[in-house]
Specification:
This protein is of the alpha+beta class. It folds into two domains: about 375 residues, Glycosyltransferase, CATH 1.50.10.100; about 240 residues, Distorted Sandwich (Beta-galactosidase, Chain A, domain 5). The protein is about 40% helix and about 20% strand. The chain is built from 20 helices and 21 strands. The strands form five sheets. An eight-stranded antiparallel β-sheet has the order 11-12-13-14-21-18-17-16, with no helix packed on it. It has a five-stranded antiparallel β-sheet with strand order 3-4-5-7-8, with no helix packed on it.
């Protein structure tokens, strides 16, 4: 059993007693009818202009020619590491089918049913719904899927949830073409989802084996399995067993979180971690008929509130680990937490995000569309003036955020402690990012396009995973190393409401050959003056090479007398000043070709290197960041 703070909390198990599960199962038919009618009603209540847009998209999809899914494309991940060409074909199929289904749910005239039947039949005939990048867990290893070794991954879960929804909402219309379609949906969902879920405990993401890893896969897949079971499973015994097993597995995900609710995978993966947990909680409350409520569980609220505390400005978010620096989180998932815990600030934040999304309603999956449709009016019309905390600290990650709000500009600093063994890790213990007026100044480059190397033993040969391409020191010529044992120590954070202080010892994030006893980074932010004082105080076991500190920016720096000047497009500037006689400066450039990174940062990054002159074993380097 994975534990947090020395004990397993088992929040879901406490709420979902055998009596509650039995009640859910006994009333499932009435709930399904109520759910079906509710979905139909809210769809018809959507604004005319929104429904017209949906119909227009569906009309285009109605002329679509379905792509073949070639074995050679599936095998490309094995042969050359490319996963995108096959996934592009499969995602196009998924997207077009969703557009057709949503169009039919809006119009209700049967015009799109024949093309929906084509898409469904092709999907049901696919050899697998598992991504080429995920099939390697099968006993035969990476390659084509083994028909005798059924696996459930993220893609399989998402497809299954949509199919179960189509079965419930459009089953009668599909039966008019042929009852074999709905019959096959039921058979395939049982063979690919229900039965493997019930009979196997060895899927790593279930976390039912000793020392299992837990990440977003657990709750994302479990939530989709819950939807499949609630929407279509007709065997009461199986439905009850799924609910009980799901409770055990999902509790492992919740137990793995610290009480403060921090998501070690970052804000992007929160969408599929905490965001999916919120959907699970909502569905469980709904199907319980009011017997279950989670509103008193503060830890669950903290998991939901994490996404607000990771927001910088507009579409910019803290992007430690594999998180994306530019994104717009799903407003409906955030609203869900506001509703579950009656928190008006989260609702306001969700409503604010709708102003950034155009169009607001996603047509990518049927489930996402229905999630938005249920709350469209209230989400659109709610107040949008949310409050983000000026200073916030997540002890479990050693992550601090500090903001200034004054006439000199909105300065934002985020630091990270933690360790180099987190899910989706970069070697970044002690690094930080800096923004001024939503403009990135000192950055974490983040993750590029996923390839075979991204999640392999070669992960840290990728430049953007390495500590030298983060805002960190290189000690005796040595970078940080990956693994949980390479960690921050003695993380301290203090705020008096006017200033904030952060301190962390990052020596243990470096391997033995770095010969470092301690490297203490200290930050003091003065929001009134838009300044940050940084102190790198270190003690070495041995001097081998000069120490250096790296600073990464998308802004081309200018070398000035005492450091670096970064001129922002809005006319403001950030200066990094050192005691000039103690250091020397140099610049490097990094041409960016990965399209995922180019989209965020453009085609060039700049690395500012500060070489420390001292050869002493004990030393400190102080510098000041000034924004105006």
């Amino acid at each position: 059993m994975l534990q947090i703070n020395g004990f397993a909390q088992q929040i879901l198990k406490r709420h979902l007693s055998n009596t509650v599960v039995t009640h859910m199962v006994d009333h499932i038919d009435a709930w399904r009818l109520e759910k079906k009618n509710k979905w139909y009603h809210v769809i018809q209540e959507l604004p005319v202009i929104e429904k017209a847009r949906i119909i227009k998209v569906a009309e285009k999809a109605n002329t679509f020619s379905w792509p073949s899914l070639l074995a050679t494309k599936y095998l490309e991940y094995k042969t050359d590491g490319n996963r995108t060409r096959y996934e592009d074909d499969i995602n196009t199929r998924r997207s077009v089918l969703s557009q057709l289904v949503i169009g039919e749910l809006v119009e209700r005239e049967g015009r799109f049913i024949p093309q929906i039947a084509n898409g469904l039949w092709l999907m049901l005939e696919e050899s697998t719904w598992v991504s080429p990048a995920h099939i390697g867990v099968q006993k035969s290893g990476i390659g084509l899927p083994d028909p005798m070794d059924e696996y459930i991954d993220l893609g399989a879960g998402r497809v299954a949830a949509d199919l179960a929804t189509v079965y419930l909402l459009l089953g009668d219309q599909l039966n008019r073409i042929s009852p074999m379609i709905t019959k096959k949906i039921k058979v395939v969902l049982r063979n690919r989802i229900i039965n493997p879920y019930l009979t196997r405990d060895d899927f790593w993401w279930m976390a039912l084996q000793p020392n299992a890893m837990v990440n977003n896969w657990n709750i994302w897949i479990n939530t989709n399995v819950l939807k499949v079971a609630l929407l279509m499973e007709e065997n009461p015994a199986k439905l009850g067993m799924i609910l009980q097993k799901l409770t055990r597995s999902a509790d492992q995900f919740i137990d793995s979180y610290a009480e403060d609710g921090a998501c070690e995978e970052g804000p992007s993966y929160w969408m599929h971690a905490g965001g999916e947990l919120g959907q699970m909680l909502l569905w469980l409350e709904d199907v319980s008929g009011g017997e279950v409520t989670f509103k008193e569980d503060r830890k669950l609220f903290n998991i939901g509130n994490y996404i607000l505390n990771s927001h910088i400005y507009g579409n910019r978010y803290i992007n430690f680990a594999d998180a994306e620096a530019m994104q717009i989180p799903d407003p409906a998932k955030i609203w869900t937490y506001g509703a579950l815990f009656n928190d008006d600030n989260l609702k306001a934040y969700a409503s604010y995000l709708t102003t950034l999304k155009s169009p607001m309603m996603s047509l990518g999956t049927v489930q996402d569309f229905l999630m938005h449709a249920l709350i469209y009016p209230v989400l659109s019309n709610h107040r949008k003036d949310f409050i983000a905390p000026q200073f916030y600290f997540y002890e479990s990650l050693g992550q601090a955020t500090m903001r200034s709000l004054n006439e000199k500009g909105n300065l934002f600093l985020a630091t990270i402690g933690s360790n180099n063994g987190v899910s989706h890790n970069h070697n970044d213990v002690g690094s930080y990012i800096l923004y001024l007026d939503s403009i990135p100044v000192l950055i974490d480059a983040g993750v590029g396009t996923y390839t075979k190397e991204t999640f392999s033993r070669n992960r840290y040969t990728l430049w953007n995973m390495q500590s030298q391409w983060h805002n960190l020191p290189i000690i005796n010529g040595i970078q940080q190393k990956d693994g949980k044992s390479y960690r921050a120590e003695n993380v301290q954070y203090v705020s008096n409401g006017k200033t904030a202080h952060y301190r962390v010892d990052i020596a243990k994030a470096y391997p033995k050959e770095a010969e470092v006893r301690s490297w203490i980074r200290g930050f003091k932010m003065d929001p009134r003056n838009n300044t940050i004082d940084v102190n790198d105080k270190y003690q070495l076991e041995e001097f081998r090479k000069p120490q250096s500190i790296s600073f990464i920016s998308r802004i081309k720096p200018q070398l000035v007398k005492d450091g670096f000047l970064l001129q922002l497009d809005n006319g403001k500037k950030v200066v990094i000043n050192f005691e000039r006689e103690t250091v020397t400066f140099s610049l490097e450039t990094k041409e960016i070709e990965d399209p995922r990174l180019v989209k965020v940062w453009g085609g060039m990054l700049y690395k500012m290197n500060v070489l420390i002159k001292s050869t002493e074993l004990k030393n400190q380097v102080m510098y000041k960041i000034i924004a105006n």
